[in-house]
Task: structure prediction
Amino acid sequence: MSKRAVIVVDLQKDYLASGKFALVGMDAAIENAARIVAMARRSGDLVINVRHEGPTDAPFFVSGTEGAEIVPAMTPQEGEDVITKNYPNAFRETNLADLLSSAAIEDVTIIGAMSHMCIDATARAAADLGYKTSIIQDACATRDLEYRGEAVPAAKVHAAFMSALAFGYGKVLSTDEYLAK
Result:
């Protein structure tokens, strides 16, 4: 097995247009994520699927609901680990670091949702733990936000977080750039 892992973060049904918390660009992000994962599987890279679950009063990803399920295009293959998390950072109170360590992983590639929450938190944690970190920007999605009454379009949210991650936490690449490596 290679020393690289692809961490698929929160590509779950509630983020689809038909879900409870739709993201902008989710369909394109899933298409690109599927390309990344297909290449990882062919290359013998470790693929780890992360899914978020919230309490019964959460607005989305409620444990046991269809919305908390991984989207069909990203269905884990037999033998791939699926980690359930309750916080934005996929390392917090999960066995993610142990899985990476036991497989002697040195490089992590992060894809999924949301750019400004779980992707950001997980990428920063990975870099802080010493992993060479890549974030595939067009295999991630986010949503419009609001701050002090000002609307912030999803494209601006995404660009701000990708630029911050590229500044000090990892390489930010497109799917095509990553697959060409």
